[in-house]
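Q: Convert this sequence to C-alpha cells.
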Amino acid sequence: MFDPRAVNSDEHDAASSLAQNFLHLGCFPQAPSSVAVYHPTMRTLVRPRCASRICSRFAEYITCIAIASLGWLVFAVPAVADAEDNFAIPVAPEEAPPRLVVELHTGFSFPLQTEALCPEGRGCVLRGGGGIGTSLERRSPNGFGWLIGYGAWFLDSDSVFELAVQQILRGGMRYTMPTDTVLHPVFELSLGVMGYGDTFDVDTVGALLQVFGGAEIELNESFGLLVGLALRAFTHTEFRTERDGVLRGSDGIFSETTVLQVGLTVM
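A:
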C-alpha cells in the first residue's frame, strides 16, 4: 500500500509542483483515464480528466478548421473562378479598335506667294503672324487616320486691316508611322475652305490645300508632342479693302504660306 508519508520533502515539493501545473492545465497527459494518481497537496488519490478535455478541445479545433474551410470554399473559390472567367488576353495592336486623338496646336505663318493679295506699291494684307487651332482625328492601329480641324491665324496686314484673320476649316488624312521608339514620323494631306478678312469678317473665300510633315513624340500613353512644317496653298475671290479702296485677288489664282507648327496631342 502506498504511504504518502514515505515521500521525502524534495520529492514532495517536486510532485506537488508538477501536479499543480497539470491540474492548472486541466489534465494529466501521461496518465490513462482509468488510473488514479496521488495528489500530494490534497493527500488523496485523484482520477485525471485529461482525456475528455483533450477530446473536447480537439473537437473544437477541428470544428473551427472545418468552418473556415467551408467558408473558403463558399466565397473564395467562386471569386477565383470569376476572376479567371473575366481575364482576357490583350488583342494584337493591329486588331485594336481605332481611337480618337485631339490635337491643340499653335505656330507661326510666313508668306511665300502673295502677289494676288498684295498689288505692287500697295499695302500687303498677307504677311507673317501666328495662330491657334485644333483637330480631331480617328486613328487606326496601323497609323492611318481621318481628321477634321479648325484654325484661326492672326496676320500682319500693313495696317490695312485692324486685325487680319484667316480662318481655316479642313478635313483630310494623316499617317502616323508606328515605330519601336517614342518618335513617330507624321504625314498629312488635307483639303478645306478658307475665309480671310478684318477681325473675323470674311472679305474673301477660297479652297485650301495643306500638306504637312513632321514628327510626333510620345510623352506618355495619353499625351504626345507634334512638331512639323505645313505648306498651304489657297485660292481667293476678288475683294476691295475699305481703308485704301484697292481691288485685290484679281492678279493671281492662289497664294501660298508656310507654317511652323507645334501641338499637343491627347489620346
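The CA atoms of residues 146 and 173 lie 5 Å apart.
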